[in-house]
Amino acid sequence: MDVSPRRPRDWIVDSLLFGFAVGFGLLTASMRVPTLHLLPHPALFYLDQVLAVAGCAAVWWRRRHPTGLAVIMVVVSAWSELIAGATIVALFNVAVHRPPRVTGGVFGLSVLSCVVFVVLRPDPADPGAAVFLLGSSIYGMATGWGMVIHHRRQLAASRRDREAQMATEVRLRAEQAQLQARETIAREMHDVLGHRLSLLSVHAGALEFRPDAPPEDVARAAKIIRESAHLALQDLRDVIGVLRAPVRELPQPTLAEVGRLTEESARAGMRVTLTEKVDGEVPGLTGRTGYRIVQEGLTNARKHAPGADVEVSVTGAPEAGLTIEVRNTRPSGEPAADRPGGQGLAGLAERVALAGGTLTHGGRPDGGWALTAWLPWPA
Asked: pTM score, two decimals?
């Protein structure tokens, strides 16, 4: 049921349909006047006119009750011929606004009304079969035209729904991409800043617990703190720069920078050795993941195994894959109780899985710890 206010276009359409119904009725009435003497009683002609006027007036309410109005007019048209114009409008309206099944039922009823009309209102001048074919053909054309408009509207509505669905999918994909970008940035910030800040923590703790250290040791520790803080701020600026410019990519390290990474740890006081046996140029994703594995291993050793010897081994070749191992001996000191951990290894495992590799970690028989990863390296 359509109860929305009529727009200017609706007023124009309704006026045209009302004019059609009135014109069709007047034309039929003018054709019937010469044969009034054939009617059983002249009053029937005036009753037919009254029904036609009522039918034409009902056209203005066709939007509110299309099916019910069409059924009533079809039933009345089984006797009244002047209401045929309004009945055509009603059939057209049902075909436009109702499903094909409903339209088919009403059209079938109109065909039956044509049969009844031929029986109730025989015309000696026109054969009954011709009257039936003419009436059912006109009703059929009106119904068919309305169904064409109905299907065109359905197609347009379906197209709008698809466009809306596509817009929603695009928005969801954009949100998903944004979420993935945020997760990537969060992971990078953890990997980049965790290593730098752990250096700061180690040397700041040394200054706190050794206030009587020689001036040269204090100066060296202060220099490392300053350098690490500067590098941490630089890394943070790089990450924030990516947030401000979405078209850029995050600054990514390569496996060739593992040597610099171990040197930084050595300058911070760690006893770390590096063994590299890599044949060929490591692919980008594999190299970046390998760098992050070494970085996380050194950071964990620094936080949780103070004073331990750390060995970093990087070996690999095309097809054989890239194997990375970070091992440390039993720590000579106790790790600080206020240093949380665990999130780095979980994120690292996810990163390795995304690269198609495997990651294992756990304690060693000598009381140390080992972190081992394998990454694919296609030929």
From this structure: 0.44
